[in-house]
């Protein structure tokens, strides 16, 4: 059976009772106009006065007010983290005005004062999420929550911030959700919007619909038994009939829809080898898989097949648990295709210094077991590795086989081409996440597939807005990150097909920035060089290109801290 969140086996995602505590105060102390909507899927806004009556009465002791600096202490384009006594806030000055908001990114808690301020938003230095400095709303992903905003005013040349104490502590804000007005009956075979898949694209699509005032029925179907978390999942769907707008599930249940969003993610590529019946061989797909791998690897021998980011992250995570960690790869250097040979070799040394043994230019021939459990991995070279648990991570393919007879167009690899509003070739059918190729503005609207967590969030939001007739193009800059042995790699752009890598810094010390270029810079990666990747993402996002000769100008902004925050000088260096 499919699972349709949130009741019984087929559970419905109504968000009926999702009434998280939210601070409805926008900056300048005004009430949010988006706190309630009219039923039947229509949009409506309350006036400030109406909203004030809805908000619980807040007592004076719930707030704190403090003078945080002199009015001349900040120049335009600068940010400062300030202490109010009950917590800290981010103070911003732009175009002569002061703004105050939460100082930590709600995604992973990055200090936003080390991020990038540009044209009314702050970009996180770690993973690239963007927040509007006026509303605190998240404008680019990853992450689901927005930031609280606080009243900032100037009195007698002093900047004064008035803030809610609870908001200072939580450092996050959930957008108000409209309630479902439809009659809830999980056996009803109709949904106004049907979402297939519960990964980030599906989750953000559902949340955006509710945030934007959609009040009719939303059903999310998945084979995963968990509520949406950080990995897309496959759905037990047999077929989609776009003519009758009906989806059929394996248990025979049929559901009609008005709008359909396909976000089924990817499935692991199979590995061919002898010994398929041997146990303790995993593809990392679920929390249960992760827990089993960690348990089985404890003080034992772990083998990782594949040098993808997931495979290498698993290898790094197991080094302090397993007796031994071995990695098998078909290329000479891990990460070569994505990060280039020089960066790949530097990272390989990092792994080797942490007890990881590589068997490159090699493949698996056989898994050997004892009493049904894995004991050895035999390579095609003849080498035999001791193994108690094996994780296979050799890539993935789109989970779209159920669409073959549907009329929804797919390319030769099984990806679903969509337009800039995430719609397929069929009216009313949208798709997003790992399963799609979409036009990337950064690369002259070339159709690309980017299976990143951040990009799936964007697809879900764009699709939801499109379903509501509020079409918004995909304008985000791809932003990727990975962490290994306490060190993070940040990456922005789309480097597929790069022909040169320009390295600045010290690869041996793992303090570097790498520019991936053709005739211009198409992507950038860094370690221990924050916030340069977020800064370059701002340039990409402005629609400008970076020539090779401008790369040293970009590094200049890191050398001189007084430049921090103001991106206008750098953006002007680019060209259309």
Automatic annotation (TrEMBL):
<feature type="domain" description="Rieske">
    <location>
        <begin position="66"/>
        <end position="161"/>
    </location>
</feature>
<dbReference type="GO" id="GO:0097194">
    <property type="term" value="P:execution phase of apoptosis"/>
</dbReference>
<dbReference type="GO" id="GO:0005739">
    <property type="term" value="C:mitochondrion"/>
</dbReference>
<dbReference type="InterPro" id="IPR023753">
    <property type="entry name" value="FAD/NAD-binding_dom"/>
</dbReference>
<keyword id="KW-0408">Iron</keyword>
<dbReference type="InterPro" id="IPR036188">
    <property type="entry name" value="FAD/NAD-bd_sf"/>
</dbReference>
<dbReference type="Pfam" id="PF14759">
    <property type="entry name" value="Reductase_C"/>
</dbReference>
<keyword id="KW-0274">FAD</keyword>
<keyword id="KW-0001">2Fe-2S</keyword>
<dbReference type="InterPro" id="IPR016156">
    <property type="entry name" value="FAD/NAD-linked_Rdtase_dimer_sf"/>
</dbReference>
<dbReference type="InterPro" id="IPR028202">
    <property type="entry name" value="Reductase_C"/>
</dbReference>
<keyword id="KW-0411">Iron-sulfur</keyword>
<dbReference type="GO" id="GO:0046872">
    <property type="term" value="F:metal ion binding"/>
</dbReference>
<keyword id="KW-0560">Oxidoreductase</keyword>
<dbReference type="GO" id="GO:0016651">
    <property type="term" value="F:oxidoreductase activity, acting on NAD(P)H"/>
</dbReference>
<dbReference type="Pfam" id="PF07992">
    <property type="entry name" value="Pyr_redox_2"/>
</dbReference>
<dbReference type="InterPro" id="IPR017941">
    <property type="entry name" value="Rieske_2Fe-2S"/>
</dbReference>
<dbReference type="GO" id="GO:0051537">
    <property type="term" value="F:2 iron, 2 sulfur cluster binding"/>
</dbReference>
<keyword id="KW-0479">Metal-binding</keyword>
<protein>
    <submittedName>
        <fullName>AIF family member 3</fullName>
    </submittedName>
</protein>
<dbReference type="Pfam" id="PF00355">
    <property type="entry name" value="Rieske"/>
</dbReference>
<dbReference type="InterPro" id="IPR050446">
    <property type="entry name" value="FAD-oxidoreductase/Apoptosis"/>
</dbReference>
<dbReference type="InterPro" id="IPR036922">
    <property type="entry name" value="Rieske_2Fe-2S_sf"/>
</dbReference>
<keyword id="KW-0285">Flavoprotein</keyword>
<comment type="similarity">
    <text>Belongs to the FAD-dependent oxidoreductase family.</text>
</comment>
């Amino acid at each position: 059976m499919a699972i349709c969140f949130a009741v019984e086996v087929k559970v419905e995602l109504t968000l009926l009772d999702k009434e998280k505590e939210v601070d409805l105060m926008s900056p300048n102390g005004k009430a949010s106009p988006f706190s309630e909507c009219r039923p039947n899927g229509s949009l409506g806004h309350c006036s400030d006065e109406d909203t004030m009556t809805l908000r619980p009465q807040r007592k004076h002791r719930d707030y704190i007010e403090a003078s945080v600096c002199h009015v001349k202490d900040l120049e335009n384009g600068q940010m400062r983290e300030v202490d109010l006594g009950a917590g800290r806030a981010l103070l911003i000055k732009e175009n002569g005005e002061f703004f105050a908001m939460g100082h930590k990114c709600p995604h992973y808690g990055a200090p936003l004062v080390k991020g990038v301020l540009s044209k009314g938003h702050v970009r996180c230095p770690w993973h690239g999420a963007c927040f509007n400095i006026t509303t605190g709303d998240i404008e680019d992903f990853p992450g689901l929550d927005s930031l609280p905003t606080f009243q900032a005013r100037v009195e007698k040349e002093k900047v004064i911030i008035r803030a809610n104490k609870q908001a200072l502590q939580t450092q996050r804000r959930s957008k108000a959700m409209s309630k479902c007005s439809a009659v809830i009956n999980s056996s009803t075979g109709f949904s106004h919007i049907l979402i297939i898949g519960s990964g980030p694209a599906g989750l953000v699509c559902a949340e955006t619909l509710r945030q934007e005032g959609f009040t009719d029925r939303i059903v999310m179907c998945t084979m995963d038994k968990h509520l949406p978390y950080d990995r897309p999942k496959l759905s037990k769907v047999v077929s989609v009939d776009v003519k009758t707008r009906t989806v059929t599930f394996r248990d025979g249940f049929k559901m009609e829809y008005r709008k359909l969003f396909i976000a089924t993610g990817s499935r692991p590529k199979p590995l061919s080898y002898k010994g398929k019946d041997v146990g303790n061989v995993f593809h990392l797909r679920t929390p249960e898989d992760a827990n089993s791998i960690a348990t089985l690897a404890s003080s034992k021998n772990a083998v990782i097949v594949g040098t993808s980011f997931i495979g290498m992250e698993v290898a790094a995570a197991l080094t302090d648990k397993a007796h031994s960690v071995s990695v098998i790869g078909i290329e000479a250097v891990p990460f070569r295709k994505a990060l280039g040979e020089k960066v790949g070799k530097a990272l390989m040394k990092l792994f080797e210094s942490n007890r990881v043994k590589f068997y490159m230019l090699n493949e698996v021939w056989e898994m050997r077991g004892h009493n049904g459990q894995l004991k050895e991995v035999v390579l095609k070279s003849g080498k035999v590795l001791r193994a108690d648990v094996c994780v296979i991570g050799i890539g993935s393919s789109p989970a779209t086989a159920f669409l073959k007879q549907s009329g929804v167009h797919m390319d030769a690899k099984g990806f679903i081409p969509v337009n800039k509003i995430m719609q397929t070739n069929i009216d009313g059918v949208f798709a997003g996440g790992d399963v799609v190729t979409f036009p990337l503005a950064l690369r002259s609207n070339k159709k690309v597939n980017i299976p990143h967590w951040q990009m799936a969030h964007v697809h879900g939001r764009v699709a939801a807005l499109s379903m509501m007739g509020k079409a918004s193009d995909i304008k985000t800059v791809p932003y990727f990150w990975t962490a290994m042995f306490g060190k993070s790699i940040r990456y922005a752009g789309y480097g597929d097909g790069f022909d040169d890598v320009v390295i600045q810094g010290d690869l041996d010390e793992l303090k570097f920035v790498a520019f991936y270029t053709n005739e211009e810079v198409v992507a950038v990666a860094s370690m221990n060089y924050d916030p340069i990747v977020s800064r370059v993402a701002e340039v990409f996002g402005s629609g400008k290109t970076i020539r090779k000769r401008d790369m040293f100008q970009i590094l200049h902004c890191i050398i001189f801290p007084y430049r921090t925050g103001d991106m206008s000088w750098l953006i002007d260096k680019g060209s259309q």
